[in-house]
Amino acid sequence: MSNNVRPENMQRITNFDLANAFIDEQIKEIRKQVGNKKVLLALSGGVDSSVVAALLVKAIGKQLVCVHVNHGLMRKDESKNVVKIFKDEMDANLIYVDATDRFLNLLENVSDPEKKRKIIGAEFINVFADEARKLDDISFLAQGTIYPDILESIKQAEGKKAVKSHHNVGGLPEDLNFELVEPLKLLFKDEVRVVGEALGLPHAMVYRQPFPGPGLGVRCLGAITRDRLNALREADAILREEFDLCGLAEKVWQYFVVIPDIKSVGVKDEGRYEGWPAIIRAVNTVDAMTATVEEIPYPVLHKITNRIINEVEGINRVLMDLTPKPTGTIEWE
Ligand code: XMP
């Protein structure tokens, strides 16, 4: 599939038979395009890059070199899981880069949301390019581009303005001039998930909620500090665990914790306890352009609150964000 327009008669991939037919066809296409050359992939662990990785491992095995950049803004255990699934279980050629210090040092004292986004996006490309330059004879760059990305670029080319500068890999420096391999570029998200499961990826990975490129960086509001970031990571893990337990994870499109850069006075062990508030956001949407707030049963909210205030160092209150989009965007920054 060399062009970027989905043929009108292209059948929607809704089951494993159709997914397997797509996989077989793509394996042939990829082998034909790549030959015996090497392909590089930035593997974030998101649905799209994970499915591309699994497909390419199947098509070309160790000719694929995956680079997972941990920018220090990942959720709890996320990078560990990427390594476990792709390196340990699929035996993929995976380079793990812990770039936490590079990112957090650059972000120190930066509170403007757009500046934070730009720094994270640019540094991601720097770290990835540094890794790419260490490797010889790479000819191709695989990307998890999907059809909505193509439609979005067309919209932007027509001059429609974006609210936030979303980041994804792309725009590598000129000396890294790779040919692109984009096997998912004509698929919609639901089709990518079916293909992912047909490739043997875990259900939880393929159906995981969206996670923004700048990661927890846009949820640790204002200037990021390591202690507040750690508190955010722990509180977010509790929220996800509890949503999994009560079945909400399957019903709510996106749910996460945000921690603003303010402290309030509280009390703990009979003494004054200044802490941050953890803010819960749980929304449903079809296309992320508008969103409604999900109703969470009070007993679930109480349990999550009790766990967060008792288990997470530095948090003394838990709040719920009841704002739809518009006016609130889904992320706070
Ligand atoms: P907003 O906050 O704009 O978010 O209402 C809409 C959806 O986009 C996700 N999001 C991002 N996704 N890179 C991404 O890949 C980004 O930089 C980014 N920023 C926001 C957000 O999580 C929500 O699902």
Name a few traits of the molecule.
333 residues, alpha/beta, Rossmann fold, GMP Synthetase, Chain A, domain 3, 2 domains, five-stranded parallel sheet, five-stranded mixed sheet, 11 helices, 10 strands, binds xanthosine-5'-monophosphate
User: What small molecules does the structure contain?
Assistant: xanthosine-5'-monophosphate
- CATH class of the largest domain reads Alpha Beta
- The CA-CA distance between the termini, in Å, is 37 Å
The number of distinct structural domains comes to 2
The strands making up the biggest β-sheet line up spatially as 3-2-1-4-5
Q: How does CATH name the architecture of the largest domain? A: 3-Layer(aba) Sandwich
Number of separate helices: 11
SS elements, strand count: 10
- Proportion of beta-strand residues: 15-25%
Q: Considering DSSP H and I runs of 4 or more, what fraction of the residues is helical? A: 40-55%
Poorly predicted runs of 5 or more residues: none
| Rounded radius of gyration (Å) | 21 Å
Account of the protein in words:
The protein starts with 15 loop residues before the first helix and ends in a 13-residue tail after the last strand. The longest helix is centred in the middle third of the chain and has 22 residues, at 113-134. Helix content is 42%, strand content 17%. It has helices at residues 16-34, 47-60, 78-89, 100-107, 113-134, 147-157, 189-198, 203-206, 226-246, 248-251, 298-311; strands spanning 38-42, 64-70, 93-98, 138-142, 179-181, 254-258, 264-268, 271-284, 292-293, 315-320. It folds into two domains: 16-206, HUPs (Rossmann fold, 3-Layer(aba) Sandwich); 219-320, GMP Synthetase, Chain A, domain 3. It is built from eleven helices and ten strands. The chain is α/β, with parallel strands linked by helices and 333 residues long. The strands form two sheets. The protein has a five-stranded parallel beta sheet, with helices on both faces. α1 (16-34) packs across α7 (189-198) and α4 packs antiparallel against α5 (113-134). The structure holds xanthosine-5'-monophosphate. The site of xanthosine-5'-monophosphate has 15 residues, from loops.
